Amino acid sequence: MMNEEVLRLLVSYGPGIIFAVTFTSCIALPVPASLVMLGAGALAAAGDMPFWGLLVSAYVGAVLGDIAGYGLAILLEGALKDRLRPGPRTLALTQEARRRLLAHGGKTVFLSRWLLSPLGPYVNFAAGAARMPMRQFLPSSAAGEVIWVGFYLGIGHAAARHLPKVTEIASNVAGLILAGAVACGILFVLHLRLRRSRRRGDSLPES
To answer: What are the boundaries of each domain within the chain?
Structure first.
């Protein structure tokens, strides 16, 4: 739950704080952006700040943060490629993940903005490292951020009187989503390894 100091900062510098929070959360910094937006929406309902100004600031910050994470991955990949020499198995998994991201990347980016929002920053990095075309990445990112920003600010605005309970529920749901996403990722890696093992078995010469 947000403390009083954060609420005072929101009242004094609402749009700027919201911009900074959504931007930094999209480059994987540990900022509770969803909870801050809930609080900002509640303060807007109380008349302490303009709702539409918050909405625009949060949305612009989120989209620019997505672009920054995408670009950062491109820069860092070039710097690290010469120093890191992955083994054959890691290289195969990376290539398969890249292929799937390019094949279904638009849907993946879109869903990671709101349905799987804890994974959003890492999808940004993966999209940049995989060289997903910006014309595919940006529309999916922008569309998904509309839902994420609108949902949390809107819920905070509508449920201002019940904000403590809403933030508690939101925290629990975010944790469940993250756990489910991690479990899916583990299953995906195991599936790839099992498939490669089967291919190696099929390629062995018969005695």
So the answer is: 4-202
